[in-house]
Write a structure and sequence with these properties.
Structural class: alpha/beta
Number of helices: 9
CATH superfamily of the largest domain: P-loop containing nucleotide triphosphate hydrolases
Radius of gyration: 21 Å
CATH class of the largest domain: Alpha Beta
Largest sheet: 6 strands, mixed
CATH topology of the largest domain: Rossmann fold
Shape: globular
Bound molecules: adenosine-5'-triphosphate, magnesium ion
Length: 266
């Protein structure tokens, strides 16, 4: 057997019998690998076509594109809520199996009402850590930290369905933070936030080490938080680059129905 063909790293040799003493596979730096991904809802035209995407660990990727171009659908596929019609998705080299919970990935839903369901804010935030089998003390600690980070301490006992849109959004974000996934998918995170809450989120995300994907029409937010961006249009990725190089390209932005954000206008 030729070990150099099967192992990415040459195995150290055992001096006595001249056999490899271990097959060493280096840890992959790839958090998300998407190959030739296609998807359509039943009896509808394709919503995603031939998506190829690689996201390395710690990357912060912004996803921009017109309404209906497929951003939310891509997120639902990445976390196994939807089943691809073709192609593959791997998270940390493990294939995504639709319907199977992967604690490494957490999704902030575009509509917080899709995410919040418990009787109180703190119960909602505790839900994921409890289901991950953590000890009560650890769950309580995570809930407290998530409430503090999002500034939602005073709402801990309130029923989520009685909160304002922005409060719901921050509580949904707190729930995601308490889960501490290695990959965070934020779908329109600033849609309901006031400027102070939006700034708090920017500062938090700028400091976080997790792999981050943000789908948003808030282009200034993506400029501040992300180091790479993809532009989607009509089910396809049509441009990849730094957020400033994509958003600052007036021809490109206009071609795909978007505008150059104010801070990049000359
Ligand atoms: N459950 C569904 N059944 C049928 N079609 C759907 C369904 N959900 C979304 N679509 C369609 O799929 C396409 C992509 O929708 P998606 O929500 O992924 O877009 P998006 O890029 O997130 O848009 P937005 O910027 O408005 O959030 C749209 O044409 C939409 O109408
Ligand atoms: Mg969407």
């Amino acid at each position: 057997m030729n070990y150099s063909e099967t192992s990415p790293v040459k195995a150290p040799m055992n001096a006595q019998n001249n056999l490899p003493s271990a097959i060493v596979t280096p840890p992959s730096n790839t958090a998300i690998a998407v190959t030739n991904l296609c998807f359509s809802y039943p009896d509808k035209p394709e919503v995603l076509q031939e998506i190829h995407l690689q996201v390395d660990t710690g990357d912060r990727l912004g996803i921009i594109g017109h309404n209906g171009c497929g951003k939310t659908t891509l997120f639902l596929l990445l976390c196994g809520v939807l089943t691809p019609t073709a192609g593959t998705i791997h998270l940390f080299d493990e294939p995504v199996i639709p319907g199977k919970f992967r604690p490494e990935v957490g999704l902030l839903f575009q509509d917080p009402d899709d995410q919040l369901f418990a009787a109180s804010v703190q119960d909602d935030i505790a839900f994921a850590p409890q289901n991950m089998g953590l000890l009560t003390e650890e769950v309580e600690q995570r809930v407290e930290q998530a409430l503090t980070l999002t500034g939602m301490e005073s709402l801990a006992d309130r029923p989520p369905h009685h909160l304002s849109g922005g409060e719901k959004q921050m509580v949904a974000i707190a729930g995601l933070l308490a889960m501490r996934p290695q990959i965070m998918l934020y779908d329109e995170p600033t849609a309901n936030l006031d400027l102070r809450a939006r700034r708090r989120l920017i500062q938090f995300l700028q400091q976080s080490q997790e792999t981050l994907l943000v789908a948003s029409h808030d282009l200034e937010f993506i400029l501040e938080v992300c180091d790479r961006a993809i532009l989607m249009s009509e089910a396809r990725i049509v441009a990849t680059g730094t957020p400033a190089s994509i958003m600052g390209n007036a021809d490109l932005m206009h071609t795909y129905g978007l505008e150059v954000p104010y801070s990049l206008r000359r």
